[in-house]
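[Discussion] Sanity-checking designs against the backbone

I'm trying to build intuition for which residues belong where. Below is a structure token string of 314 positions. I'd appreciate it if someone posts a full sequence so I can compare it with mine line by line.
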């Protein structure tokens, strides 16, 4: 266990939850350590594999050789929301001067100016939350239909204010946001379903926080072969719809049941139209399935059917 590290100069903390990806984590850590910034920063790594924390061993090996402030811990309670919440909690506790908390996933690598650009965007634009693009690198050759799928896309365009960001794989969150949010920050109901980040950002949007998109803060994600196929993408489209429905049920206010049912029925019709439009314009079946399958997935929570892709087998 690391001793508490407190450094009054630390301005940002990069949080990295990890689970059974020690060699990918190694690449992530080295990319973060290579950042060029005009401020000091720290790292918090949380391994969510209590039985065999290989990621924690890699992190201690790499970070122990360097003078950078860091914390490496194991979160024994399984679930990605548990790991992320622990990462943010420890970052807040150990580095009381840090104004910004960032997150990068353990299958991603950051451009050398990523951290500087994210913090600069928050400073200069008064943003509470900043997101940036994630570009996919495929482990094995992938068809254009797979590369063009919506699940592998990010927000397009120049840096600007946006209504909301949707994922935590490349994000910055101001300390004050956490200080005004009750713990656990990410809702544990999304532990094994996924989408805890989207639900958190939905709450932030409803609370009036300002979001910013930083197009210059670049991150690359490695897409393994078992995700670059039609079965995985179609299943993920359905799960995305289920996540959207669960979030709606939590935040639609009064008369939530009839509102959700009505929205789901409209979504089915619009989803089919959108899928047919994509098919007609691109001629690619797989990307065209996404809108309709998301609409189908919205029905699953109403039937008590929720997948648990992040519930690991021992």
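Best answer:
Here's mine. Compare freely.
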């Amino acid at each position: 266990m690391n001793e508490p590290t407190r450094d009054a100069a630390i301005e940002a903390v990069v949080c990295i939850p990890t689970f059974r990806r020690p060699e990918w984590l190694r690449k992530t850590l080295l990319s973060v350590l290579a950042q060029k910034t005009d401020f000091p920063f720290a790292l918090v790594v949380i391994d969510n594999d209590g039985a065999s924390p290989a990621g924690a061993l890699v992190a201690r090996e790499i970070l122990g050789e360097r003078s950078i402030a860091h914390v490496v811990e194991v979160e024994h309670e399984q679930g990605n929301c548990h790991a992320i919440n622990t990462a943010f909690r420890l970052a807040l506790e150990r580095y009381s001067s840090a104004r910004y908390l960032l997150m990068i996933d353990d299958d991603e690598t950051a451009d050398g100016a990523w951290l500087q650009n994210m913090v600069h965007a928050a400073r200069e634009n008064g943003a509470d939350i900043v997101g940036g693009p994630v570009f996919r690198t495929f482990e094995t050759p992938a068809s254009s239909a797979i590369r063009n799928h919506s699940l592998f896309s990010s927000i397009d365009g120049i840096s600007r204010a946006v209504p909301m960001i949707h994922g935590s794989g490349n994000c910055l969150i101001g300390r004050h946001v956490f200080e005004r949010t009750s713990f656990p920050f990410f809702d544990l109901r999304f532990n094994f379903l996924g989408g805890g980040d989207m639900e958190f950002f939905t709450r932030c949007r409803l609370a009036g926080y300002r979001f910013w998109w930083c197009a210059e803060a670049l991150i690359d994600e490695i897409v393994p072969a078992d995700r670059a196929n039609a079965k995985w993408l179609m299943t993920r489209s359905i799960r995305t719809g289920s996540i959207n429905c669960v979030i709606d049920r939590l935040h639609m206010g009064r008369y939530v049941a009839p509102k959700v049912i009505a929205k789901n029925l409209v979504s089915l019709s619009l989803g089919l139209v959108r899928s047919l439009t994509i098919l007609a314009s691109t001629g690619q079946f797989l990307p065209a399935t996404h809108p309709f399958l998301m609409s189908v997935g919205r029905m699953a929570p109403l039937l008590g059917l929720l997948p648990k892709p992040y519930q690991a087998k021992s």
